[in-house]
Structure formats: structure tokens, C-alpha cells
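Re-run with default settings, no changes from the original entry. Doing this only to confirm the output is reproducible before filing.
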Amino acid sequence: GGDGDGEDRGDGEGVSAAAPSSARKLVRPAQATGSAWLVREYVEQLVVHTVNTAAVALLSELQRLQERLHLKDPTKAKLRKRYVCGLREVTRALKTSKARAVIIAHNIERIEAEAGLDDVVAQALNLCHLKPEWVFDEKEKRSKQELVAREVDVPVIFALTRKQLSRSLKRSAKTSVVAVLDYNGVDELFHKLAAEAKAARDGWRRRALPWLQRGDGGGPKQRERLLVQYKVGQRVIPIDPLLLQAGAAYDEEAEATDARWLELEPACSANQC
């Protein structure tokens, strides 16, 4: 069908960090679990319902358009994919510079084995800033492929859980990551998501970055966190704990954004999703 990969495969299939096209499979250990409340340390953005809602709106429409084309012309649908799912396909899209944005679930379970899931997630995030390019080595007198900085980074958006991502795309397999390849016709939805994600990244920077040491400076680094229960009206909803932490350079615009994040209710709770 029009699920993005053309097959109903899991996210961990067929890729190692060093060689994404290798035949070796990433296998999730039996004890690996992914909590809907978990926010991994790679999420350098606030987890907020405005981003989640915008992500669902975009992905649902992309899935509808891709499925419609698949039903009309399956051959053309394979050549004109709107999105791809899974770390293997997303890594390939990044390496070929076809990805326009990458949406990553905030609760990918931790698997730290060599060339395991954590390594591949890190590689995908790295490829959003770097691209492979053939460079001539004067010393060795031959061309070799190196990672060089992109002129423009591929936007990285942290939204939804793995289960919510799969539901948005009507997939049976849980989905860790999606690459948007073509948003023609849904530009407004795409730019809405990009704007919400930027606001959430700015909010994260105000709250987390002043206390974090990046690189090899030896200071504290971000740890994984858990969404916390927060009462809105008569409901208790899950929110990012960083929202309850005072941010640096707090201004009226930031205060208004925070109020919007805390006062509006998300579509569902972590338990329901």
C-alpha cells in the first residue's frame, strides 16, 4: 500500500550505523520497552501538543495523498513517494538529499549495542546537518566520500510516540522516524509544523541549554526525562517537565507561548496514545 516503504517492515530492519545498506538487521531485544511517557536525551526540543497536533495533521494528509496515488497508479506512486518510514529508508533519503524534514518519535527505546538502534538514531540526526560528498584527497591522489556541512540543515522535528506516528500514517508497525520527501500541495501544514517545532526548540533552549555543556567540555549533558501529569481544568494531561522550569531571557512572547502550551488540551493522554 501507500505506507511509505512499500512494505510493512519494522524500523530496525536492515541497517547498521556504519553501513546503512548492509543486510544485517537491527533486532530489538525482548526486554526492550518503549514508554509513552519517555522523552529520550536526543530530544533537543520541548514535547508539546501543538507540535504533535501539527505533525498528525501533516502526516495524515501526506498518507491520504500517497494512498490515493497508489490506488490510481501504483507504479507512479513508488516513484513519487511523499514520505518514507523507518531508520533504513530515512537514512537513505538523507544520504541522497531527498528528505525535506525528519520527524522522530520522542520515545524510541534505548538499545546501546554496537551498531544498535541508538547508533542509527545518532547517525540519522547527524545526517540532518551533514551530507556525504566525494572529495579529492591530494595526499592519496584519489577521491573518497566524506561528510561535509549542508548549506541548509534538514529540519528535525520531535513529535509523537512511536505508536502515534504509526497511527498517523495508518501503519500496523510502530514507527520511530519519518522523512518528508514531498510536501507539495500541503505547504501550509508543513510550514505550520515547522513553525511550531521552532517555537518548541526555542523553548527548550531557554530552559535546558543554559545548564548543559555541549561537546567534550566535561559539563552535564541532557538526560532522558519523563512526561509529568499536569491538571488543566478537570483533566490531567501529560506535559514536558521542562515546561515547569523557568527559562532564561523570559519575555512577553515566550510567556504567551508557554500559556498556549499549558492551557490548551492535547487530543489524547500518554496512556491513550
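Confidence is low (pLDDT under 50) at residues 1-24. The longest strand covers residues 130-137.
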